[in-house]
Amino acid sequence: MKNTLMRNMLRSVAFLALLVLILQGTGRLLQPRDNTLDAGIELQRVHGYLGEPDNSIDVIFLGDSVAYCGYSPMEMWEQQGFTAYVCAISAESLDDTYAFLLETTAHQHPKLVVVEALPAFREMPMDDNLYTEAAIHLPVFSIHNSWKAMTLERLLSPVEYTYRNVYRGYQSDKTSFPQEIGNYMKPGGEPVEIDLCHRIYLDRIVRYCKANDLPMMFLSCPSPLNWNWGKHEAVQAYADSVDVPFLDLNLALEDIGLDGQTDLQDEGGDHLNHSGAVKTSVYLAAYLAQTYNLPDHREDPDYENWNQALNKYRNKYPPVTIS
To answer: Where in the chain are the domains?
Structure first.
């Protein structure tokens, strides 16, 4: 009976090992050959970083919609000359943040990784979590639709990423929803905690960055609807415990010059509009350049594409006057 049980266990292990090999092979086979929608890539705006030369991005922003609405790399380039990319999706949870950290740093070794703090308080459903973990180890789960774009010609062609996002992951709206911001950062109120599951992912992010010599910081974009003093204290306590800097821009509204009458795009102040993003990005660019001694590439011919992209960016987003 013991021998039968052992044989069955060995067969199960062999089957699982074979299944993993098949899935890994399928993932390699179906890998999009380009970072375009036509080639089967998902989230083209986010994956525009693949079109950048390896190790050419100075700052990687990871986060959710408040990040891609609030941080404009082209404004930062124009002001300070360092390169940045916003790798963020709507309603991003911390498992997504961790997965994007692994993805981006396979191609870039940034001088700074910036992690938006809001996902530390967003629900992280177990089924989504399991799917993300599976996709990290078996990429076939994250590119399962790419077979629709696969042809024999593409199958035999080398991987060549050609798409470069002009806005470097930024996506905002010029819509203005005038409102009073209020004193939403008043100290006090109910204490807030970061639960165990979210702490586990935060720990993984911190450990990965430290193990790979990637300076990192936590950042909170102005968002009156989503942020409060309790969340600030919770993130600050965690950041202090792992010796990682935390910059809360919700405490710097006056220095930024943020105005609820002109700089918010939706009711309650969920997201910044373009005017608010410009003010925030200009303030943040100066802080990051000085604090982390980031390089200025504006006169470097190897980065001429960024100057060209700035001209295209200005066609959609003319300069905003900051009083």
So the answer is: 31-316
Q: In CATH terms, is domain 31-316 a member of 3.40.50.300?
A: no
Cα separation, 319 vs 177, in Å, equals 20
Assigned token pair, 38: 């036509």
**Whose CA is closest to 170, among 65, 309, 286, 256?**
65
Q: Which of 222, 224, 246 is nearest to 233 (CA)?
A: 246
- Residue tagged 């530390």 (tokens): 120
**Tokens 């292990």, residue located:** 13
C-alpha–C-alpha distance, residues 247 and 249, integer Å: 6
Burial 97-111 (b: 16+ CB within 10 A, else e): bbbbbebbbebbebb
Contacts 24+ apart (CB under 8 A), 292-295: 292/111, 292/112, 292/215, 294/58, 294/59, 294/80, 294/82, 294/111, 294/112, 295/58, 295/81, 295/82, 295/111
Q: Do residues 36 and 154 make contact, with C-beta atoms less than 8 angstroms apart? A: no
Q: Residues 6 or more apart from 158 whose CB is under 8 A from it?
A: 33
Edge to edge, the sheet with strand 112-116 lists 84-88, 59-63, 112-116, 216-220, 246-248
pLDDT in tens, 155-172: 556 778 999 999 999 998
Quick: pLDDT tens for 211-265: 999 999 999 999 999 999 999 999 999 999 999 999 999 999 999 999 999 999 9
Cα separation, 93 vs 80, whole angstroms: 30
Cα four-point dihedral sign 203, 238, 98, 138: positive
How do strand 112-116 and strand 84-88 relate by DSSP bridges? Answer: unpaired
